[in-house]
């Protein structure tokens, strides 16, 4: 009998102004953490975080993250953590910073505290990291025995970030139910090595419902730096619901195609994770033989929040069919998650679906 597995973070804290509580919350887990963030994020958050740690008598060390969640960077920062005798790792920033923090903490066998400064991905809550080469090409996943010990996300910080990141998180989250449903149907494995649970599917359904119900108004409020109940709901959907849903429900083609896009060169690498997942989700829907009504519903949603639904918007209008086949080849790598949709679909069929999404979107009124 197949076993079902469900994992989750130990604690999740969300709200406007909660960054000032980081020291108090960290104090329950650590006295000497290593803090990592990129220079831009640190310039925005350092004053609040430093004051918060000082008020809680926490002796922390800061080290700049270089921007890529690569094995080389993980190894470098792990050595820094060991040399500083850090007893925990605090990651502050976007998905790659947070994935790197999780990897460092795993190498130290220490607690990890996750502080997202955007709601741009569902990376914060998961027990895995997406790993890239130094040049930004997807190389695989790292899996851990546990999820983060603490996630603390300040809604005011999130809405002060570029609105494109908020929209990207909505697009990443919109893939959650599409992929979990495919994994359930195919009897595929989730990201923690078990079958999708009823709870994970219910969470994925609530995630999508929240986005379709509140997404437009949340997007418009967040674009003005406003924290409203709709914004709070979408931050939770982007960060917690999507994270729990994808990890325990499973990934399928949408994220595998995102990973396939990393095989290409050019301006596509300037797009966010969520932007590439947007197109991957639409490709999965085409491959699933979704109805016209369903496709147009998703395309309309993505267009309303400025996400790419055409090859031109993906900077791929001049990409050859052969290169799109290469996307399909990387997407269907046995180490990725495409088989949760099907193990019968060929790279050529994926290339055709990529082209079909473009035509459907262009004709969508």
From TrEMBL:
The domain of life for this entry's organism is: Bacteria
Its pathway? Polyol metabolism; glycerol fermentation; glycerone phosphate from glycerol (oxidative route): step 1/2
Supply the alphabetized keyword list.
Answer: Metal-binding, NAD, Oxidoreductase
Stated name of the protein: Glycerol dehydrogenase
Q: Which PANTHER family match?
A: GLYCEROL DEHYDROGENASE, GLYCEROL DEHYDROGENASE 1
Q: Which family does it belong to?
A: Belongs to the iron-containing alcohol dehydrogenase family.
Q: Which InterPro entries match?
A: ADH_Fe/GldA (IPR001670), ADH_Fe_CS (IPR018211), Glycerol_DH (IPR016205)
What species is given as this protein's source? Salinicoccus siamensis
Q: Which GO terms describe its molecular function?
A: glycerol dehydrogenase (NAD+) activity
Catalytic activity, as annotated: glycerol + NAD(+) = dihydroxyacetone + NADH + H(+)
Enzyme class of the recorded protein, top EC level: oxidoreductase
Q: What is its EC number?
A: 1.1.1.6
